[in-house]
Amino acid sequence: MSTIEVLSPGLLTTVQDLGREGFGSMGVSPSGAADPIALRIGNRLVGNSEGAAGLEMTLLGGAFQFHRPCVGALTGSDFGATLDGETVLAWASFEAKPGQTLRLGPTRSGARCYLCVQGGIVAKQFLGSGSTHLLSGLGGHEGRSLRKGDVLKIGRLPEGEKKETGRKAGSTGTTRHPRKVPVTALKQFAPREVLRVTPGPQSNWFPRAAQKALYESAYLVSEETNRMGLRLEGPNIPGGAHGEMISEGVSLGAIQIAAGGLPIILFVEQQTTGGYAKIANVVAADLSSLGQLRPRDEIRFELVSFATARKLLIEQEKLLACPDLIV
Amino acid sequence: MLAKKSSGKASSIKSKKKLSARFNPASDQSLLIYFGEKITIQANEQVRKLLHLLEAEPIAGVRNLHPAYCSLLVKFDPLKWRHEKLEKELRKYLVQLDKVRLPEPRHVEIPVCYGGEYGPDLNEVAALHKITPDQVVELHASASYLVYFLGFVPGFAYLGELPSELVTPRLAAPRKKVPAGSVGIAGNQTGVYPFETPGGWRLLGRTPLAMFREDREGLSLLSIGDRVRFVPIPRERFAELSRT
After folding, report:
1. Residue in B63, B65, B187 nearest the CB of A25
2. Is residue A281 pLDDT above 70, yes or no?
3. How far is it, in rounded angstroms, from Cα B160 to Cα B149?
4. Quick one: A80 and A160 in the same domain?
5. Which pLDDT score, from 0 to 100, does residue A163 have?
6. Residue A267 lies inside a defined structural domain of this protein
7. Residue A128 and residue A118: Cα distance in Å, rounded?
8. Mean pLDDT across chain A, nearest whole number?
9. Distance from CA of B160 to the nearest CA of A (A)
10. What are the chain B neighbours of A126 within 8 Å (beta carbons)?
11. pLDDT in tens, B116-149
12. Residues A205, A280: one domain?
């Protein structure tokens, strides 16, 4: 079995797939890639199914040595990757020879970069997913972020899927031009600075001044931001403290207003229930953008209807399903 | 059947009222169903019945269910469902709730070593209520608690209700780190932290039991609808149980 060795892990690198849905009644949130579009495209570039497990790097990438021939792809933000010193383009597949080292540096764009490998990273399945859930120490590679010296196994592609990629796994001879996502297509998935939101379940608790603050001000992503949630800094949002709210289920991308009046956006490793009022919720089509936000990034919110939110998602999925996405 | 339990007072108006549920979109891919706006056993029973029914007869395109005190959050595939259509579908489930028989509650005992380093807030809670720490322990261990739901983090059970003498507001400033196994109280609720997390509940003690384990069938020690009692244990017993 082919393997990758972690020479240096980077700031925070975890094994992620598309998460585990369906266990909210146990208090288990789905986890999964913070930028699922990047992971899905990365997997398609190497010929995997969209939900195969890959590595999610945060702000600063690591160094990884391939022990066998390997087809890989980097997607998401540009972490200035090189393979034995040669520049590796993002959003394109590459071939690594045994012994070669992929090195990534600090980000040059957004928060996260994904490494997908043909065959996928073999992760221990927990509740049907290989995603790491950091808070509980479950799933992924020993339930934690990667460390120097970790050796990760790479799976094998089923025969049928190998053909689809138009190349043989791990072939070292002359190969087809790398598969890539054209720049024009990439633009459609560029992370957004204006996040579209729909009204939250308690939006009518908030006075006009609160709505005005949320929709007319810029907010900065705080340093205290992680896979559980994004804390924002900016104008206070009044009216969140509406007596003692009864805890209820909370949705991914919910914008809750904590006691201090500052918004927190619940993210992939979110708590499953909570007792703060939610003024709005980021639309499904913009959740991947959340995964690329770095501390100090500036964002704004734009209110849309549920019908618009649905249209945006349908359009996005159409683009993702387009055969010309990868050439 | 549950309807019988309240047969004394159950007028037709009351049982009709039981069915009234309020729907509210939470996001473009989730819908909240509220059974009343207060924490009551009856409302929670409705939540558990709907959860039970949706687990027994799942709706295709429904991805996740988050039960809470008196509400259920239903996460769905927005490419398959719209809020209005899903509400209509869920209403078909609501009319069946009276027929749902919930499984008999499991009774679970949780050993707790109270006070000292394990329960750093025990003395303060006692002082707040002008009783002794021993009386706090006695009160906390005297009640049988219902698992209203699991939430927050994997395996965290919201237990209620606390004896009224112990109802205490949460800490003004939450702790950055609460050790796994810590038993806390907040408002009229009590619970056990399954993992080391931040937390604002006042800590009375600690259990050596693992609340959530990957290698255990069912994973979580507690499930929604269970009945829980806390059993005080001395420090030596805590050490013994921690080893096993």
Report:
1. B65
2. yes
3. 10
4. yes
5. 44
6. yes
7. 20
8. 92
9. 13
10. 214
11. 999 999 999 999 999 999 999 999 999 999 999 9
12. yes
A136 inside domain: yes
Domain ranges of chain B: 2-99, 107-243
Residues A198 and A177 occupy one common structural domain: no
**Dmax over Cα atoms in chain A, in whole Å?**
68
Residues A306 and A253 in one domain: yes
For residues A272 and A27, is the Cβ–Cβ distance under 8 A? yes
In A, residues 66-85, which contact B (CB 8 Å cutoff)? none
User: Domain range spanning residue A198?
Assistant: 194-325
Per-residue pLDDT reduced to its tens digit, B53-108:
999 999 999 999 999 999 999 999 999 999 999 999 999 999 999 999 999 999 99
In the predicted structure, residue A166 carries a pLDDT above the cut 50: no
H helix intervals, B29-175? 41-56, 83-94, 122-128, 133-140
Q: Is residue A283 less than 8 Å (CB to CB) from chain B?
A: yes
Q: Which of A148, A181, A214 finishes a domain? A: A181
Name every residue whose Cβ is closer than 8 Å to that of residue A174 and which is 6 or more positions away in sequence: none
Chain B nearest CA to A279, separation (Å) = 10
Amino acid sitting at position A163: K
Residue B7 has pLDDT above 80, yes or no: no
Question: Into how many domains does chain A fold?
Answer: 2
ipTM attached to this prediction: 0.93
Contact B27 A272 (CB under 8 A): no
Q: Looking at residue A176, what is its pLDDT? A: 67
Among the partner residues B69, B75, B194, nearest to A246 by beta-carbon distance: B69
Say how many CB pairs under 8 Å bridge A and B: 148
Residue range B2-99 forms a domain whose CATH class is: alpha beta
What confidence tier does B14 reach under pLDDT thresholds 50, 70, 90?
A: very low
Provide mean pLDDT across the span A181-193. Answer: 94
CATH number of the domain encompassing residue A260: 2.40.100.10
8 Å CB contact between A108 and A76: no
CA A78 vs CA A37, A100, A266: distances in Å: 15, 20, 25
A187 within a domain of the structure (yes/no): no
Report the CATH superfamily, name and number, of domain B107-243.
Cyclophilin-like (2.40.100.10)
pTM of structure: 0.92
- The reply to whether A321 falls in a domain is yes
| A201 close to B (CB below 8 A) | yes
Beta-carbon separation of B28 and A284 below 8 A? yes
Interface of A with B in 159-188 (CB under 8 A): none
